[in-house]
Each structure stands twice: as C-alpha cells, then as structure tokens.
Amino acid sequence: GAGVSQSPSNKVTEKGKDVELRCDPISGHTALYWYRQSLGQGLEFLIYFQGNSAPDKSGLPSDRFSAERTGGSVSTLTIQRTQQEDSAVYLCASSLDPGNYGYTFGSGTRLTVV
Amino acid sequence: EDQVTQSPEALRLQEGESSSLNCSYTVSGLRGLFWYRQDPGKGPEFLFTLYSAGEEKEKERLKATLTKKESFLHITAPKPEDSATYLCAVRSEGYQKVTFGIGTKLQVIP
After folding, report:
1. For residues A22 and A6, is the Cβ–Cβ distance under 8 A?
2. Who among A56, A93, A99 is closest to B32 (CB)?
3. Given a cut of 60, is residue A1 above it in pLDDT?
C-alpha cells in the first residue's frame, strides 16, 4: 500500500486480557518502529527492527510487551495481561533511511483497557 | 539521555500572524533534528530533517532553523489549515531511535 497500515484502529479490552496490534509497513522499508503516545506525553519509543538484525527492545516497558516482525515486513506488538496504564495510542512507523527521510507513521491503534 | 523540550505548549494565532515555535535539545552527538506535524487522530507527518548548526529548510509557510542548542519552526502568514500539533525530535550518535518532545499545539483562527 501507499502508507503504513495499522489494525485495529481502536481496541477496547478488559484488564488482564492479551491484545495483538498489527502493523503493515511501506513495502521496501527495512526499518520499523513502535512508539506509544499517551495524553500529555511525548511519543515513547518501544522497539526498533532493522532488516535481519536483532531488534532493539530497549524501550519495552515490561516483559508483558513483546513484538515480532515476520519476513521483514508485517509486525505484531503483543501486550499480555493488559493493565489500565497500558491505555494509549500505539503508533507504528517505517522508513527506508530514517536519517534522511524521517519516519512514515501509521494512524495508530487506540488501546483502552477497562 | 537525550532530552527535547518544546515551547510554548499551545499557541493561538490569528490568520496571517507570523510566529515561531521553539525546540531545545540535549544530545550527545546530534545525528539529526526532525520536525513533524500531527493532526488529531492521525500519526505524525514528517516535515524536515536538520543536521548541523546554521542549516535551514523551508516548505510552503514553514521554515526550520537549527543552532547548537535549539531549533525554531517559523510560520509565516499562517492559515487555518496550519492548525496542528508540531513535534520536534532528535536522533543521537549510536542510536537508531528518535526522542520526541511533547509538541506545540498550534491553532490558527480565521
């Protein structure tokens, strides 16, 4: 597709349930990032994938969070045993060369944990 | 740790009233300073990358400048469609991630 696609656009889940968020990056973009954005907070880095290299997981807030990227394309962010503080907008971005062209972001998944 | 501080948090302008947004940063070796625009309910949209002090970039009514400690986003004769949140971000040496500021919410009134 022409842009970064994220699904679902909205997700309401009960506390303690697991959720999966999906990201389809722009074809050919080797770099893929997950950020989350909470009200009044800046974008918080979660994880970075680059080609076949080991991902940079340094931003994942706890071991309840995990992510994978299959075939260098689609990525899934999984949150286990969701907590209310996990409520936020989860943004995926991809880039051909983040140093020169910046990121192309998707519209995000708004996660609400009730 | 990289830090980005944006001011003001919110700015309200009359259409045609030029102004500037500020981004102060602290990094260990700047590898890029980025400006993004974010509309409600959407992801940020890339505007500019600046690499070194003295560099300037322009796009329509927007002009971004960079010094060793801060960047400015100048908005000349803004229109209501320029209303959005403007985000500043930095990338430092040895890191692939980008650190974002909280943003400046700009409202341009007709």
Report:
1. yes
2. A99
3. no
